[in-house]
Design a protein that fits this description.
Blueprint lengths: L1 H20 L16 H21 L4 E7 L2 E6 L14 E5 L5 H4 L13 H8 L9 E4 L5 E3 L4 E10 L4 E7 L2 E8 L2 E8 L3 H17 L1
Amino acid sequence: MRSNSYLVATMPLIMMVSALVGCGTPEPPRASTGDKGPKAIAKSMKQMEKDRAVFEEMAPPGWSLQRFEEGLASYVVSIKRRPGAPEIGLVSGHITLDGRNEPMVKLRRGFSRRGDQSEQDREEVLNLYPDYEGYKKDAAIGSIGYNVKRGEDIRALKYYNFEKNISCYGHKPGNFRCYWGIPEKRMGIIFHSDDLGVVLPYVLERADVGQKL
């Protein structure tokens, strides 16, 4: 009799403790709908509009915004030709705000040379390529191939102005890229080496504008 009375008396206490420590049957998890509701969607759209406005505002004249995400935007770039300059091909641009492209900038880096390659070898190769005002140049002595149609070797080539944080490099003939600015606002464009004579003066001018801001 004592044992039955004891169980009956203590049953409410056991149930209370079970509820406090979570020993009862748990409720099934509820699906989260807050991040998909109208308010969240409106907030997301507002942020996208804000990001678009920021990237459009910081782009140089002639840069048409194509795509963007957090910290990165891509553009189609229209470069105004100088009188007498040739037509140029497609130029794509991008702006990064989070440093993701820094390994590609290659500031303060030249081309390595083997021990059997002399300074005279280097000068002979450099003389194959034009000089551009405001830039120094460097080239790989060995070629990576031969362009039969053009009748010329394909070499890695670089033009740079480290005082203005400009690094341009690629293959000639082939694709080239230029970077300038700072990691928090790194500007970059990709173009064909045939357009170096138009693009390099443009980049030098843009870098000057950036330093004055």
